[in-house]
Design brief:
The complex is a heterodimer of chains A (779) and B (165). Chain A is built from 17 helices and 32 strands. By secondary structure, chain A is α+β, with helices and mostly antiparallel strands. The chains are: A alpha+beta (779), B alpha+beta (165).
Chain lengths: 779, 165
Amino acid sequence: MGENEVWKLESIGCSPVRLDAREKVTGRAIYVVDLKLRGMLYARVLRSPLPHGRIVRLDVKKARTLAGVAAVVTGEDFPFSFGATIQDQHFLAIEKVRFVGDPVAAVAAVDLDTAEEALSLIKLELEPLPALLDPVEAMGPRAILIHEGLSQYALAPGIFPIRGTNICNHFKLRKGDVEKGFRESEVVLEDTYTTQMVQHAHLEPHASIAQVDRCGKITVWSNTQTPHFNRKALATALRLPLQKVRVVGAPVGGGFGGKSYLKAEPVCVALALKTGGRPVRLVYTREEEFGSAPVRHPARIRCKTGMKSNGTWIAQEMEIIFDTGAYADIGPRVCRNAGFSAAGPYQIPNVRVDSYCVYTNKPVGGAFRGFGIPQVTWAVESHIDRMAEKLGMDPVELRLRNAVEEGSLSATGQVLHSVGLKETICQAAERIGWGQNEKPLRGKGIACMHKSTVTPSSSAAYVKLNEDASATLMVSAVEMGQGVSTALAQIVAEELGIPVEKISVLFPDTDVTPYDMATVSSRSIFFAGNAVRRAAADARQQLLEIAADILEADLRDLEITSGKVFVRGVPEKALAIAEIPLGEAFYVGTRGRGKGRPVLGRGVFDIRDATALDPETGQGRNPSAFWMYATQAAEVEVDPRSGRVRVLRIASAHDVGKPINPRLIEGQIQGALAMGIGTTLLEQMELEEGKVMNPSFTDYRVPSSLDVPEMIPILVEEPHRQGPYGAKGLGEPALAPTAAAIANAVYAASGVRIKELPITPEKILEGLKKRRGNEKEGK
Amino acid sequence: MPGTDDMKIKIRLNVNGFPYETEVEPRRTLLELLREDFELTGTKEGCGLGECGTCTVLLDGRPIKSCITLAVQANGREVTTIEGLEKPDGTLHPIQQAFIDHGAIQCGFCTPGMVLTAKALLDENPRPTEIEVRRAIAGNLCRCTGYQKIVEAILATAEKEGGAG
């Protein structure tokens, strides 16, 4: 590097080009599906055709002897179980199948055609059992048990199943006295809202390659969002020490929660353990994605709200039923986290929430962007608008009146910090032109949200400075499109004073990159970001020590800017980082001593004062390290002849604490808005007898470029004292308020109130017909 | 029985300007040929049914879904994949550069197909309107970006390069 070269410092708040842009746009990025290992075998899975049944006969003999088949595994070969919260899932079904798509047997063969032929040679006989397809029915006292062994399963902390039932978690929140609160209220409204089953529909399917080496060590290449969790879960299930399992990441083609915890890995590993060391690759087909992969929990939310006639919120009661499907997966935690956040970001003295996580014989409800918050927000934010109407108050006004602020007490008794909610309400309302005259058949609607982050959790990072002043960041945050690698590199750049382009970020590898809980819950900037900041600061400190030695200056007088170390106030006494001996000791002068040494920065971040929630009252002072807040305002037009809703514009205002990379943040907001349009107006997994009837992109309508409205992202900054540079999180929030904002706008435009997602033209037409009928009868 | 050789057909095609000669079973798709036989893994598979556009490549300059196109259909024709867009010296195609500059890439899985569809559009219509851009890419699903920055990148490229040939 020449002496006069200017180093461009891209730091916090700037939007440098993302580090992986070039390799993705040239087709050079290697995803798991692009990996080819010597001797690799290809896997296919035989899945249950029934939603509930006992395995009477499973005969794989013919499949095993087909030419080209290396291994066939069944549940009997593999009596191991796993689970993100409840250890209720076997690698392959044992004794029972519990949903259409439940893996029963798997084949590894020289090519997919052979594997498929082998599947057709497997004889599976099932004795059908009554299938529970409705969670309310499944909760009933006389319902058949989907998991008879529920009381024997190992449980994660904070999960409370109800013995002898299909309820695998019951979360309770009791604050104040809701009965008293309702008595004191002047307006009370109660109703029920529902959300449908939807799919993540990331374009890259689940993919996993597993290989067992001669020492019995299992390496799994996986497009998972949770490498360290997966390593532990596999090792625990197989009763192996952690060092015998290695999970390696790659660029992930979209996750949205669907690639969290064990998914394709168990079956893949089961096969790999039987192929004598040959690697096995399992890639879900798109049909498997729709039904065998996790879905978003359909939910039924009963909401009862009590307010004074001046709009002061007195009481809120909610009952939420999350349909978690055949296995718990992370459902119990969705139930809990959405449970303690359910009443919304409002100051309410009396709150009662009962949140249930219920087994049914349907696809597994897993982590899905928002983690239960989109469902409860749909209910609460629709309900608030109806209260506003009853009170004769403006919906924006009513929300502002009750919105939480800095220092407010949450529903669990947490003193809230970094609360930019009111600002997001004002900005969203302003940008949509709230209160301005509407054209006929057009309307505006608003909705707020808040979301917690999984607490406690922790992250660690290493920053390795290379001898040419470039740096390598070793962290296990998973890059799945959100841009986390780039944002974390910006933090390193900021601390070390070197350009972002000089930083390379390794893919997660549980043998190499240190522990990070998982890339979920919008936690990475806060947790991994803090760990990275500490690691970079540590590296900076080490660097300055070496520089101080060479410059013969006091450490405290040194600064790093633009890739150079300066003595403050003496710009001539500067040293380029690349000239500082980083890996080698060298002699200075004829009687010199060694100077310089490798620089390796280390950072760890965790939450020391997290609290559990009381099992009876759900009260706890610190269940969430930070809270995210957002408000969306939508303008829609309703066509009364077709019932079609056209979303014209959505303003989405977010309190992000401090933006690390504004353009990446905009991208997340826009992407989530599109997903919100889809899950509000277009998407629904249609099931018949537990079987998904629309398992393809033709019949399951993911928004295209023609389906998205004008999107107006707005960033609000309410710095968090513990966030890196004040930053919080953003991945999930923009998905939550969209449905209610649109529903409220639809109501304003047409007088039709939809309480069951998705909002379809049929429901609008039905609603308009009813209104006309009511008008005729003079109602 | 899978893998019989007696049904193979000889084909000749150009991929990214390079001539290839090979034998394929009639049922082999162009996607399989590109990814498995020619090791050009830039083209991705999203659904295998021609419904998502992820596998888009250009056949004689027109965007097609390679997962539902047979390899034999490419006989005697010109295929362009994402790998064929950059110049040998590494200079990116203007559309690629615009995608980078405008933040139009997130997970990157839809990107190769999206870029090629955009290229085909601009080759035919150098100055499209926004609605024309949205219609052209309506067959390329993206779950990450919401399409906004992709549309901006394509329009910006048209603005910069449009009419220049």
